[in-house]
Design brief:
The structure is a homodimer. Chain A folds into three domains: 170 residues, 3-Layer(aba) Sandwich (Molybdenum Cofactor Biosythetic Enzyme, Chain A), CATH 3.40.980; 82 residues, Alpha-Beta Plaits, CATH 3.30.70.2860; 150 residues, Maf protein (Alpha-Beta Complex). Helices cover 39% and strands 23% of the residues of chain A. The first copy, chain A, is built from 13 helices and 17 strands. In chain A, the strands form four sheets. Chain A has a six-stranded mixed sheet with strand order 2-1-3-8-7-6, sandwiched between helices. In chain A, strand 7 and strand 8 form a beta hairpin. The two termini of chain A are 35 Å apart. The interface between A and B is large, with 67 and 67 residues. Strand 14 of chain A pairs antiparallel with strand 14 of chain B, so a sheet runs across the interface.
Chain lengths: 429, 429
């Protein structure tokens, strides 16, 4: 089964919007076991959309057409598909009612143009809309098929998962369920991580290649290890994923900080809540970045006290009680952490000082970073690292490195000690 | 002159990387006055790359082929273009020397595979590499042309501007220079902004449509007004842009916070430096976000003292001296700003408190935000706004709204008072 993606919208060609939909669809087609060899962007031009659809249907069994389903005159995907099918559009009375009731439920006036969204090519079936006003369409063309979905990512993703992918799998005669799970890691370069995981990759290969393992470098957020399993039922696929996750965790230990969408700050938050600890920060180099990540976790007001962003030396000395001297140093980092714990009244404090560049500071080159951590029952400790990249990258790496140090120590404090290497603060890749 | 874009890479189809190159190229082709009707993504497969190039050359005068020029076995763009040209690849001795010297200058070992990057289809000319090891190629195919550029955005953008766009314009017989300038605005919705600017759009239309004006909604960063001018020389085009910028600024006044790449924090930084003022922050709702934007400005250590991220009420009371009571209120915001000025020893202080959601706080619904500003010679003032969106959006809108309030007041302080409407803190769009 081959499926192409056609993204429709002049704003995509002009670069006013980056087409992220095709990438998302490509990823999910691959996970569903469906080949996708071509993805095309075309403008809001009837002749060219028709031409693209016809060429795609010559090469492939299915086309997912994304965008151009809105209410305005330049939304012409419906017209283009009807032309390719060789049929007329008819206005669907049931859809008219749905659209009218959506507007009245939101207490908004409905412009008549919105009823264009009730137009359906003869012979097509409707994918009901649950998140927006535009329904999707399943449009047979001979033994092939065109799916039309809205260009709004939130609406598109829902329709893909709910209707398009299951329909494609049914057409492909795929009775198998394919599921995947992503382990997010921090602390090793991709090549080193691959060496650590190599025994599992080889064992799986020997056993028939199910599940499979793939590595995805994710820049500042580390390296993802994705496990994909295929089975007759979702329950069996989940079981395969559970078992492989356990094998990988035995190899990777605390390098794994989260699963699927869980972030480094989610991991820190969970551990702080479990251990009943509050957190305060002292940030120089990162300038509030660590704090702004933490407050994105729902419920952070329960354990996050705040941060003293001590960007000028005077604030470090005056507010945090750092003793005058070089501010990029082990000593300054330790005193910042102790000062933050005292000033903010937290159980735990984390501090970051360093040189973002472009110039040197205190005789230290850009990328020099000190991270200190004060935990309740032991002396404060400091980690010195050298990070690559420009100002923004040094800051981003510092922020996640600091959170990772805290996560590692909280894991150890909870008794999770697997003899793993000490955190290096080294960025992956 | 019609030009298509072909982005090469299996990782693009699998969604492991989002193709931002095509969007960037599309934008710059439009600015250069060259039509781009189709953009395609294809994987690292020789037959399919060849097929895509042939179809594109049937429809269009030129193809920009992006990616697949690296040193590894799956980088096969050179081979595919040679096949379409019907010629052989030859290894260019001059390029071999350039690549060898790049490695030795960086003190790195060169794997032999890197010499594949010296392969050139017979009859193609080389675009010298200045930022990476892969050269670009200009490959004639009959009266048409294929350009090959690397997939790394930083390398691709340089080659496009230095070689590909000028070559395309020469082929198109375009002797005109097209330049554009973007005015970045904050404070009005797109439709209102369009009404304000309408007299200029109409005047330009009547006068022949040069320069032209376009609006680009940029989400949290406001609405951009882009002016594009065409002239026989760059100097004349710049003159047209200068005159139109003056006309637009007369209509928009301080709604314009920056030109081209200048950010809201750049504008704030420039005004603080001009007026010799230091800045301190007290952030609750935004949790360090305002601080982390400010420290991205090079030289911020000259005027930015720091921020007290007072996320818990106790830190507001204990560190900033806020009087116990509701923390989402005009009073709390004012006392936070005064406290930040005192604790951080700054001339100016800005504070933000509010409800990010999902739950209410102090009986206030999510999106309720208070921003206070303490300037040297006047009593502190407070601005209350209601912002839409989820947690992250409320925070992002709050951060830029706070910076905009500071910018407006610093402009007034410098004597720039154009009778514009008071800042509304209302997000655009």
């Amino acid at each position: 089964m081959r499926c192409e993606v056609l993204a429709v919208g002049t704003e995509l060609l002009l670069g006013q919007i980056v087409d992220t939909n095709s990438a998302w669809i490509g990823e999910h087609l691959a996970l569903a076991g469906i080949d996708c060899h071509l993805q095309t962007k075309v403008g809001d031009n009837l002749g060219r959309i028709v031409e693209c659809l016809r060429s795609a249907l010559e090469r492939s069994d299915a086309v997912i057409c994304c965008g151009g389903l809105g209410p305005t005159q330049d939304d012409i995907t419906r017209e283009a598909i009807a032309e390719v099918m060789g049929v007329a559009l008819r206005r669907d009375p049931a859809l008219i009612e749905v659209i009218r009731s959506m507007f009245s439920a939101r207490g908004r006036e409905m412009a008549e143009s919105n009823l264009r969204q009730a137009d359906v090519p003869d012979g097509a079936t409707v994918i009901p809309q649950t998140r927006g006003t535009a329904p999707g369409l399943v449009c047979p063309v001979g033994d092939r098929v065109v799916y039309a979905v809205p260009g709004v990512p939130y609406e598109m993703e829902d329709m893909l998962q709910r209707a398009v992918l299951p329909d494609l799998q049914a057409r492909a005669g795929t009775t198998a369920t394919i599921l995947s799970r992503t382990l997010r890691t921090w602390g090793l370069a991709e090549s080193t991580l691959a060496e650590v995981v190599a025994p599992r990759v080889e064992a799986l290969d020997r056993a028939g290649g199910n599940p499979t393992i793939a590595f995805l470098a994710s820049g500042i957020e580390g390296i993802k290890v994705r496990v994909t399993a295929k089975a007759a039922t979702a329950a069996t696929a989940r079981d395969l994923l559970d078992r492989e996750e356990a094998e990988l965790r035995a190899l990777l230990g605390p390098l794994v900080f989260g699963v699927d969408e869980a972030t480094m700050e989610d991991a820190v938050a969970r551990l702080l809540v479990q251990q009943g600890l509050t957190l305060g920060l002292a940030e120089s180099l990162t300038g509030g970045l660590v704090a702004s990540r933490l407050v994105n976790v729902v419920g952070s007001s329960g354990w996050f006290r705040g941060s003293v962003v001590a960007y000028s030396p005077e604030v470090k000395f005056g507010v945090l009680g750092v003793r005058p001297g070089p501010v990029v140093s082990e000593q300054a980092a330790l005193q910042m952490a102790e000062g933050a714990r005292r000033v903010l009244g937290s159980d735990v404090a984390l501090s970051v000082t360093g040189v973002a560049g472009p110039a040197e500071l205190d005789g230290r080159p850009p990328g020099t970073v000190f991270i200190a951590l004060a935990l309740p029952e032991r002396p404060a400790e400091v980690l010195g690292v050298r990070l690559p990249g420009d100002r923004d990258r040094v800051r981003q790496f510092s922020a996640i490195s600091a959170l990772d140090l805290l996560r590692r120590r909280l894991l150890e404090r909870a008794g999770v000690t697997q003899g793993d290497p000490a955190p290096s603060g080294r960025p992956p890749g």
